[in-house]
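One such given next:

>
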Amino acid sequence: MAKAGRPKGAHDISPIIRGAFIRALKMREGKDKSLSEIMSDLLDDNPVGLLNVLKGYVPKEIDITATDLTHEEWLDKMDAESAED
């Protein structure tokens, strides 16, 4: 019977990606644009693309669903839902 998991010699690259991302964040410090500003620009330009990228870094308990709503429409919808509670 075959064993489950990665083949012998295979490496988990997630820690490498996370480490590179943390280093990139530290390199951004003191630059003209912060990561938040970059992400804000991406929300304007390609919100679904940004959410698709971010969903890989969000814990599985949180559900990110891409919609056809604009950012403003989504915020209005969230405000309306919270007012109902």
